[in-house]
Amino acid sequence: MSTGAQYKQRMRKQYHTRTVGDERHTWDVHRLLRLARGRQTETIPLSAITELDALWWYREVDDLPTPRSIAHHIRLMQEADLRWPILLCADGRLMDGMHRVLKALVEGHREIQAVRFDPTPEPDFVNADVDALPYPDEEI
Predict the structure, then answer these.
(1) How many domains would you assign to the chain?
(2) Which residue intervals of the chain are DSSP H helices?
(3) 101 with 112: CB under 8 angstroms?
(4) Residue 72 falls within a domain, yes or no?
(5) Most exposed among 23, 25, 56, 67, judged by the fewest C-beta atoms under 10 Å?
(6) pTM confidence score
(7) CB 121 within 8 A of CB 96
(8) Strands 125-126, 86-88: pairing kind
(9) What single-letter DSSP state applies at residue 15?
(10) pLDDT tens across 99-138, in order?
(11) In 53-123, where does DSSP find H-type helix?
């Protein structure tokens, strides 16, 4: 199965960040989704997604898991569309799709469709202030 444009929709702007060495690398998720179009998907066991057991959203000191923020993530999980594959870097780390992963887990799925980038795309930003980046909704 390959990803395609059949699932075009407007999506809130998102960025994926990761520390690489001493730098903070940031990818524009919309760009990653465009890069994933037409690529083969693979079936990944949910047990292989190590981020399920890691601190994912609440990594910053002032980013607290309040009931309101948890409710926000629950709503996003409920709205997640499992027809969209998750995105993994070349090393198998999650780059996009945690709400889809959680939805699959809650619904009792054991596997999920994924696109694995190999090689991992270059980041869009290095050491950028993520809060200062643009956040327009875009069609993907």
Answers:
(1) 1
(2) 29-36, 67-79, 98-106
(3) yes
(4) yes
(5) 67
(6) 0.85
(7) no
(8) unpaired
(9) E
(10) 999 999 999 999 999 999 999 999 999 999 988 988 877 6
(11) 67-79, 98-106
Quote the CA–CA distance of 98 and 1 in Å, as a whole number. 21
φ and ψ of 104, to 5 deg: -60, -45
CA-angle at 42, arms to 12 and 59, nearest 5°: 45
Q: Which long-range contacts (CB under 8 A, 24 or more apart) does 131-136 make?
A: 133/15, 133/26, 134/13, 135/12, 135/13, 136/13
Residues constituting the chain: 140
Place of tokens 């780390």: 93
Whether residue 138 is contained in a domain is answered as no
Q: For residue 33, give the CATH number of its domain.
A: 3.90.1530
Pairing of strands 23-28, 15-20: antiparallel
Nearest to 105 by CA among 136, 135, 74: 74
23, part of any domain: yes
Domain containing residue 27: 14-123
Q: How far apart, in whole angstroms, are the C-alpha atoms of residue 11 and residue 90?
A: 24
Structure tokens belonging to residue 69: 């923020």
Taking only the tens place, the pLDDT of each residue in 80-99 is: 999 999 999 999 999 999 99
Q: Is residue 60 part of a domain?
A: yes
